[in-house]
Specification:
Number of strands: 10
Shape: elongated
Helix content: 40-55%
Largest sheet: 5 strands, mixed, barrel
Number of helices: 15
Strand order of the largest sheet: 1-3-4-5-6
Structural class: alpha+beta
Radius of gyration: 36 Å
Order of helices and strands: EEHEEEEHHHHHEEHHHHHHEHHEH
């Protein structure tokens, strides 16, 4: 079927054996290479070649390359795809291998295997034409009817998607601009098909046979999308089902890119995630935050909506907003400043320690006279076991507050307390004091914050 006026591939091609997938003409595919013969092909042909001809290789599907050079080659699949290697990436982890990005050009048939070592080389016969624009005279009679039927199924499949998505609109324009004989290979690589079904498309050398094999696959995809429309929850603002579309890099003479239809599971996960963000925004607005904190949270939730989930900052921003929602912004207790009751409680809980009790009662008396003190701190210094924490617990019981203890043993850096160990802003390490407020569910719980801190600071931080 090769035309003398068309573009011809070399009659001898190095053969790349793969069993991972099927490369179709006009499509792009990544192939991992780690066996001996394929590695030698990459090193000798692709990495050392200086001409465009050296980048053209033959990809034989459904054929496993033997691990060792001494092993005989298995029977080769009768039809392969000539492709151009547009990218070669090497790596030594976990073992030496190359990753090739190959764009399919045309079909070929292997006539004879010329050599097996150091890599396979075969004499091939080109089966497809490589003209930019095919002749419309080919699509006449029964073939023309099959082409029109195939085109209608392809348009119906694309029209079931959301045309407001740029990649879907681009795919629709490709259906109108590309010759019909190039569409079967492109759509076969785009829709959900197995390797065996793609092999059947590859083996279909005649265009009529190719149309007949792909129309049932398009019909199956359309029925699946119709079932998807019935099972998914209806939306008020959308009339069409939106299906997740994964762009696939495409390099070749076709304009635009290629796309792949994903299953409904990914779309449903996106819906659930958007529902979670909407619920989080509702919690932020009902958390009774101060105006400055509310402005920051609203700004961050807007950034979160536009941010892809794959970004590392997505999880950090979401954790920050969830922490802001969980903080007790409007929950507090009323202090009980009864000095007589406090004296009775301290005497019942602690024996002796008159100087300490007197200092606590002085603090309560000052609070009675001046109730607008901000951040009063009582510092108890002493060896372990003398009752510093129990006195703090008694003070909390006297005031009617919740008590939360923060042990700072081993802390020698102020950033461990302030919460800015790794970076500043909302991405930093959370403050232990802030976490204590969150766990106590009150705005001002008394905290035993300085336990074991002073000794560490004096001895290790002169």
């Amino acid at each position: 079927m090769s035309d003398k006026t068309g573009i011809r591939i070399p009659s001898r091609l190095p053969l790349l054996l793969t069993h991972e997938g099927v490369l179709l003409p006009g499509c792009t595919m990544r192939i991992s290479v780690d066996t001996y013969r394929n590695m030698q092909l990459v090193k000798s042909r692709l990495l050392r070649g200086t001409s465009l001809k050296s980048t053209i290789i033959g990809v034989i599907p459904n054929t496993r390359d033997p691990e060792h050079d001494t092993d005989e080659l298995p029977a080769l699949h009768r039809v392969g795809t000539a492709g151009i290697a547009v990218q070669v990436v090497g790596s030594n982890w976990p073992k030496p291998h190359y990753t090739l990005l190959i764009t399919g050009l045309c079909r070929f048939r292997t006539l004879q295997l010329l050599k097996e070592r150091p890599f396979a080389v075969g004499e091939v016969e080109q089966l497809d034409q490589l003209e930019q624009h095919a002749s419309q005279a080919l699509l006449e009679g029964e073939l023309g009817e099959l082409g029109e039927q195939f085109y209608k199924h392809a348009v119906q499949l694309v029209d079931m998607l959301d045309m407001s998505v740029p990649v879907v609109a681009k795919l629709r324009r490709l259906l109108d601009s590309l010759p019909k004989e190039t569409l079967p290979d492109m759509l076969a690589s785009m829709i959900r098909t197995s390797n065996s079904e793609k092999l059947q498309i590859l083996d279909a050398v005649g265009l009529e046979e190719r149309f007949k094999k792909l129309i049932p696959l398009l019909t199956r995809q359309i029925e699946g999308l119709k079932l998807l429309q019935k099972t998914r929850k209806p939306r008020q603002d959308e009339d069409k089902t939106v299906v997740a579309i994964r762009p696939i890099r495409k390099i070749g003479h076709f304009p635009g890119g290629q796309f792949s239809l994903d299953t409904a599971e990914e779309a449903e996960e996106e819906d659930e995630d958007s529902d979670d963000i909407a619920l989080l925004e509702k919690k932020i607005r009902s958390a009774s935050m101060p105006e400055p904190a509310l402005k920051v949270c609203v700004k961050e939730i807007k950034r979160l909506k536009k941010m892809p989930q794959s970004m590392p900052e997505y999880a950090l921003t979401r954790n920050y907003l969830e922490l802001m929602v969980e903080l007790p912004w409007n929950k507090s207790t009323t202090d009980c400043l009864d000095i007589h009751a406090a004296r009775v409680l301290l005497d019942s809980d602690h024996y002796a320690m008159e100087k300490l009790k007197k200092r606590v009662l002085e603090y309560l008396a000052v609070r009675q006279l001046k109730n607008n003190l901000k951040g009063p701190i009582l510092c108890f210094v002493g060896p372990p076991g003398v009752g510093k924490t129990s006195v703090g617990r008694s003070i909390a019981k006297t005031l009617g507050r919740e008590f939360h203890r923060i042990a700072l043993g081993g802390v020698c850096d102020q950033s461990d307390i302030r919460g800015h160990r790794y970076s500043t802003g909302h991405c930093s390490l959370q403050s232990p004091t802030l976490l204590a407020v969150k766990q106590a569910l009150l705005k001002r719980p008394p905290c035993d914050c300085l336990g074991k801190l002073l000794h560490r600071t004096v001895t290790l931080q002169p």
